[in-house]
């Protein structure tokens, strides 16, 4: 299960896309002969734990995905499981997901297993009775090519948002093909959760997954919803070439950093293979703030990245962070000046709030849909 979003929250929790991490776990379990049920409480809260579901279906393990914003929802699910135990349910409770990485002590004692980090190996070990500790750090999957595909057969039947405003056609599928980040931006929690080593699925594997989604679900577009899709040039080049050599006509979009977009030939190859837009975290137009954020990129690189993308007609969506300690009026002015020089389709303005166990943040994100003239506020 995922955890339901808070009913009232300053963060927007309305982007409903499949939880791919849980999807990997479902596939690993199914491939090892286990029967799985999935309830996406974030997509649509259900009353499954108030019913006789656990008893009727002889459920012996319940696993919950927990992130910080939805943590109250996790607690609510756990309370219901506790009540089921009082009524005689004998099952085991496991939790995993980002919140275990940042505040492991938050989980009540009656939770049997708290899995920090990657779950594919550990979830099987738990079910096979090989785990003795209550709090376990999941073993990292070094070669992501060995992972099964997320459980698309389950997700595809659910009412996720299968479209995206950057791609005309639908359905659009999301993929997550890398883990870890070698950078250490002060505002970001990814390194705390995934570690600094960047691990990837090969270009061939990514291509095969895209083809699978086209052939089985008539996918019209792919959104690589991951921290930095373009970091390993070799695999992205392999992926783009495979799309072109096999004449696969698919639109795709990804999330990236400016330093990955300095080489026009590379950016142009992505455009030729179907890339329609980049979501670029450039964060600030002030060298002083970039330095404080430890962003390891320069304003010169920002300008070059946007120039390269626009040269090959790839649209750009910029993400900025405001309100970090030490930001001055002058820094804001520099950011605004830089923004005026960009031809953005979207701008996400993110405001710092603070976050547990991170360098320092929860951030509010305000997105100005420049072309669409609508607004949205949410956080990363
Ligand atoms: C795509 C994405 C989304 C998507 C899909 C979320 C999802 N559930 O997959 C959407 C748009 C819905 C989303 C929303 C939000 N997101 Co988001 N998102 C991401 C992103 C970029 C990739 C997620 C992913 O696919 N990861 C890869 C998979 C393999 O990992 P995983 O999902 O964590 O699952 C693995 C393990 O955690 C573990 N595991 C997970 N569940 C369980 C359960 C059990 C029982 C076990 C044993 C193991 C286990 O095993 C899985 C496989 O290895 C991450 C950044 C990142 N690198 O992870 C941020 C990230 C997860 N999001 C984040 C945040 C803050 C949010 C929002 C609060 C933003 C908002 N709108 O305000 C909401 C929260 C709602 C929600 N339910 O997630 C933070 C979470 C930080 C935190 N401490 O909780 C992250 C880490 C980004 C960041 N920079 O900090 N997000
Ligand atoms: S913001 Fe991006 S580059 Fe920086 S640490 Fe987070 S994932 Fe890595």
Q: Any descriptors?
A:
alpha/beta; Rossmann fold; TIM Barrel; 2 domains; 8-stranded mixed sheet; binds cobalamin
Would you summarize the structure shown here?
The protein folds into two domains: about 20-135, Rossmann fold (3-Layer(aba) Sandwich), CATH 3.40.50; about 160-380, Aldolase class I (TIM Barrel, Alpha-Beta Barrel), CATH 3.20.20.
What this model shows, in words?
The protein is of the alpha/beta class. It folds into two domains: 20-137, Cobalamin-binding domain (Rossmann fold); 162-379, Alpha-Beta Barrel (TIM Barrel). It has 13 helices and 14 strands. It has helices at 20-31, 53-56, 71-86, 98-102, 120-127, 152-155, 190-194, 203-217, 233-245, 264-272, 287-292, 299-311, 329-340, and strands at residues 61-65, 92-96, 113-116, 135-137, 172-175, 178-179, 199-200, 221-224, 251-256, 275-283, 315-322, 346-352, 363-368, 375-378. It has an eight-stranded mixed β-sheet with strand order 5-8-9-10-11-12-13-14. Strands 1-2-3-4 form a four-stranded parallel β-sheet, with helices on both faces. Strand 9 (251-256), helix 10 and strand 10 (275-283) form a beta-alpha-beta unit. It is globular. Bound molecules: cobalamin and iron/sulfur cluster (SF4).
Topology (elements, then pairings):
Elements: H1 20-31, H2 53-56, E1 61-65, H3 71-86, E2 92-96, H4 98-102, E3 113-116, H5 120-127, E4 135-137, H6 152-155, E5 172-175, E6 178-179, H7 190-194, E7 199-200, H8 203-217, E8 221-224, H9 233-245, E9 251-256, H10 264-272, E10 275-283, H11 287-292, H12 299-311, E11 315-322, H13 329-340, E12 346-352, E13 363-368, E14 375-378
Parallel strand pairs: 1-2, 2-3, 3-4, 5-8, 8-9, 9-10, 10-11, 11-12
Antiparallel strand pairs: 6-7, 12-13, 13-14
Helix pairs in contact: 1-5, 8-9, 9-10
The chain binds cobalamin and iron/sulfur cluster (SF4).
């Amino acid at each position: 299960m995922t955890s339901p979003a808070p009913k009232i929250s300053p963060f927007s929790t309305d982007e409903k896309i499949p939880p791919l991490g849980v999807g990997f776990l479902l596939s690993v379990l199914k491939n090892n002969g286990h029967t799985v049920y999935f309830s996406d409480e974030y997509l649509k809260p259900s009353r499954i734990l108030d019913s006789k579901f656990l008893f009727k279906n002889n459920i012996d393990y319940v696993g919950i995905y927990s992130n910080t914003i939805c943590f109250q929802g996790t607690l609510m699910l756990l309370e219901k499981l506790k009540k089921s135990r009082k009524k005689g349910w004998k099952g085991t409770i496991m939790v995993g997901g980002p919140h275990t990485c940042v505040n492991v002590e938050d989980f009540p004692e009656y939770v049997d297993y708290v899995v920090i980090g990657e779950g594919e190996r550990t979830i099987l070990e738990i079910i096979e009775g090989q785990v003795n500790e209550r709090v376990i750090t999941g073993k990292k999957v070094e070669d992501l090519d060995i992972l099964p595909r997320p459980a698309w057969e389950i997700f595809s039947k659910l009412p996720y948002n299968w479209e995206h405003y950057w791609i005309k056609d639908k359905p659009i599928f999301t993929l997550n093909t890398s883990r870890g980040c070698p950078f250490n931006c002060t505002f970001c929690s990814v390194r705390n959760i995934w570690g600094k080593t960047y691990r990837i699925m090969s270009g061939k594997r990514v291509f095969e997954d895209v083809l699978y989604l086209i052939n089985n679900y008539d996918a019209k577009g792919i959104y690589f919803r991951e921290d930095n899709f373009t970091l390993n040039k070799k695999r992205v080049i392999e992926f783009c070439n495979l799309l072109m050599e096999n004449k696969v006509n698919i639109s795709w979009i990804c999330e990236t950093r400016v330093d990955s977009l300095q080489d026009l030939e590379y950016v142009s190859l992505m455009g030729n293979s179907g890339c329609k837009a980049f979501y670029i975290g450039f964060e600030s137009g002030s060298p002083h703030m970039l330095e404080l954020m430890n962003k390891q990129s320069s304003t010169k690189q920002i300008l070059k990245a946007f120039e390269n993308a626009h040269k090959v007609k790839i649209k750009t969506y910029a993400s900025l962070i405001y309100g970090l300690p030490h930001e001055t009026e002058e820094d804001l002015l520099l950011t605004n000046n830089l923004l005026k020089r960009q031809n953005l389709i979207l701008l996400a303005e993110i405001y710092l709030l603070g976050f547990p166990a991170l360098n320092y943040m929860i951030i509010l994100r305000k997105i100005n849909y420049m072309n669409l003239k609508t607004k949205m506020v949410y956080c990363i």
